[in-house]
Predict the structure.
Amino acid sequence: MNVYEVMIRLVLATIVGGLIGYERQYKNRPAGFRTHILVCVGASVISMIQLYDVDQTINSILEHPELANSLKSDIGRMGAQVVSGIGFLGAGTIIHQKGSVKGLTTAASLWVVACIGLAVGLGYYSLSILSTVAVVLVLVSLKKFESKFMDKNNLIKIELVYIDKNGMVQKVENYFQGKSIKVKNIEFIIEDEIDECESSYARSLYSILAPRYIRTGEIIKDLALMDEVIKVTVV
């Protein structure tokens, strides 16, 4: 493999990693433009090291035929280590925050960039280019489709007016937990002027993530049936 071939593969790895990394950078993800380029270039370098190793082994056997049974070269061993080893970098992009997990798509993009980098380094140009196009289309085009048709949770904001009794907040949270509804945020509204008849009332604003199979009307009905609840409104 000559110098020009090495340059072509390194440039292609840079372009491939940059295209996928740019989309992640644009979405303000933990691993962005430069990280994806470095992963892709590094994987392609590993692939080329494997090819150099194979060439060196073949030349050594041609020069010394008696070593044919003792010299071996596994072209897939180092590549397998790249595919499995990239997991530590992907794990660093995954964030657990407020009951939700973020960064899985970025971790997956790092893994697939490493795989494409191996293909580039081995000289599979058609496979590398077509797979890059496929990855970019998945990251850019399918996001809207996923959000519209496949998003598992539905964000709902509910204003709750209830009799201020001990344990009422916990009772509401127990209801949400029993329905697999995630509470993203709770705001306790304090009003400066409250009528005497409403002095024992409390007002809270819940931001919840409800599964798609649970209708908003069902949640409103269940909350309204609680003895302490005075009023339930969808904001």
Summary: The chain has a mean pLDDT of 78.
